[in-house]
Design goal:
Structural class: alpha/beta
CATH topology of the largest domain: Rossmann fold
Strand content: 15-25%
CATH superfamily of the largest domain: Toll/interleukin-1 receptor homology (TIR) domain
CATH architecture of the largest domain: 3-Layer(aba) Sandwich
CATH class of the largest domain: Alpha Beta
Largest sheet: 5 strands, parallel
Number of helices: 16
Number of strands: 14
Number of domains: 3
Shape: elongated
Order of helices and strands: EHEHEHEHHEHEHHEEHEEHHHHEHEHEEH
Distance between the termini: 19 Å
Helix content: 40-55%
Length: 370
Amino acid sequence: MKSIYISSTRADLQDHLQPVAETLRQCGYDVESMEKYPSRDNRPKAASEADVAKSDIYVGIFAWRYGYVPDEDNPERKSITELEYLAAERAQRPRLVFLLDDEAPWPSSRRDAEQEEDGGKRIRDLRNRLKKERWTAFFKSPDDLAKQVLISILQTESTHQVAGLDALKELQTAAEFGPSFLTNLQARFAELSSTPFIAIRLGPTPWWNTRLHLASALASDFTEIRQFVVLDSARSVLAVASPLEIRRALSKSQPKLEMAYLQCRDQARLPLPTNEIDFIISLYPGAVMSVFGGQVETQAKEVITPAGLRELGIKPEGEVLEQFAPENRPFSYADIMRRRKQYVVLMRNGEIEGVVDRAELATRIAGSQL
C-alpha cells in the first residue's frame, strides 16, 4: 500500500483537505492523518520531516497562507509547509504540487495579505517559486482538488524514469572486445530488473549495427527491459521500441548479425566456469569473423544513423508528448490517453520527464472508479 503525505496549512483549507484524504483512502492509499497532531499547522518540524521521508509520494496543497513558522532548528524562518516540501526533495520523493487558482474567489480572512504583517509576500514568493521548480496544477473547489490529486498520483505511479546504461555505453564505445574489456557484465545486466526504459543515443558517439544488435539481443534474452528510447545527438526521440523489435529489424536487415549472436549463445550454454553474458561477449569477435567470411568487426560493421534507423522498419511501440511552456503545468491525462501507442514519452522543453504506460494508467484509473 502506497503512503501519501499531504502537506498544507489547515485553518484555511480544512474543507479541501478532508475530501482529498477520503478519496485517497477509498482507493487504498495510506494517507498521513491530518489529526495526528493537535493542531496540524503547529506540527513539530522534526516529526513532520520524518513523516515526509517515510512516505512514498508528497502532495503539497497551497492557497494564500504561508503558515506556521517553527522556532526549532529553523534559522531561515521557513514555514512548516515549505520545510515539508524541502524534506520531500531531500528524500527524493515524487512531489505533486497543487495551488489554489489565482482567480478563484477566496475569503479575505484566509489570506495573508489581509492577516499578516508581510502583506502576503512570503506566500506569493513561495507560490512563484513552486511554479518554476515543479509542475503545478491549479484547483478551484474541494471536489476539483480531490479528483486532480487522485489522477496525478495514478499518473505518477504509471510514469517510469528513463535511464542510461553504463554497460550499453561500453558496448557502444569499445573499439574491440578482449579479455580485459569488461568484468562481470552479467552483474550489470542483473541490475536492470527495475529499469524498464533505457535511453540509447545514436550520436555524437556512433552505434555500430553489430553492437546495437548485440545490446538488443542481450537485453531481450537476459533482462526485463521493456523499451529502448532511441535518441539522436540532439536528444530528440527517434524511436521507442522493445529490444526484441530492434533485434528483429536489425536481423532482417543483416541476417549474419543474428547468426553471430546465436553462435555465441549456443556455445555459452555449455557448462563452462563463467557467467553466460560475459562468455557471449568474449566469443563475439570470433563469431563475427566466422559468419562474415574472415572480416573483423570493424570491417563488417555499419554505422547506424537516424536515417538508417528509420530504414530498418522498426515498429514503434511508443510516441512523444511534448510541452514547450515557461510554466510547468502537468501533462493532461486526457492528452496521454488520446495517444495510440502503449508508451508515451513525456518531454518538457526538450528533456525527457518519463514514460507513461497507457495500459497501466488505464487500469489504475478503472480501479479507482473515477
